[in-house]
Amino acid sequence: VGFVDSFGLLKVGGAGRRRCHGRRRVVWKAEAEDGKSGQDGGGRRKLLVVPVSVASGSNVLFPGAFVKLAVDDKETVEAIKQGIDGKGTETDVIGHFFVETNNEMSKVGTRAAIVEKQDVFAPDGTSILEMTCLGMSRLKMLEVVSASPFLADVEQFSDDPTEEDLFATEKELLDTMSDVIQLSMKLTVKDGDGQGTLNELDRVVESLRDPSKMVEATGALNSALRHETVSFLIADLIDQPIYERRRLLESRDTKERMEYTIGYLEAQRSELAAKAAVMDAVG
Q: Which residue from 2, 60, 241, 266 could staple onto 245, CB 3.0 to 4.6 Å apart?
């Protein structure tokens, strides 16, 4: 589920993901339990993990983004329905981790809230639990506790602290994204579905410029957490290879993540500008 503009340059969503925006009001509160970016927070905790195969086509889940998962393992489905988080407490939170091609579990994943779930049946009659999950924060895999259901000790982490002022870099990131959206609007058929999606994206990007709206939507009360949040929200709006998305998820360098995304968007902007110039020339 996703959107590709008429020239195939700006992609929103992607295989295995669903973005909700205005269609469903879900507020993500950025989480940093110790209140400080760059520190491992909250200590060890047990969490129900949903292993996702690299070959499944599912995408990397960034904090603030959505992913759609289908689970058919009976023990895992039962644990999700009972709200088991390893402590016997009720919760709708899971750990989203990839299983490598060598069957090793990835060391970094995402803490995700289950915002929607329903039972469906495959053509062969197999019962499947479909879930839409919202990324909350990043996790380190510390130790596997049990295999069925898959419980693991995990620890939350955020980006490393920096003394550098990143507001100029953040502005450049948002400006470049806005340029790509505006050029895509120019090249997209008016009154079509693509135009509506681009208008929605434009509103999302503009809302990130307003600190008060940013705090209301994400809970990012300090500048470091704000920059980290924006870096992921914008990175999630563009189509990237899964290995690059995994690298961005694992990185603890906010500026590096922003600069990588700016470079990617600048290349798109140049290509879109060239197409717009040709369109203008031919009338």
A: 60
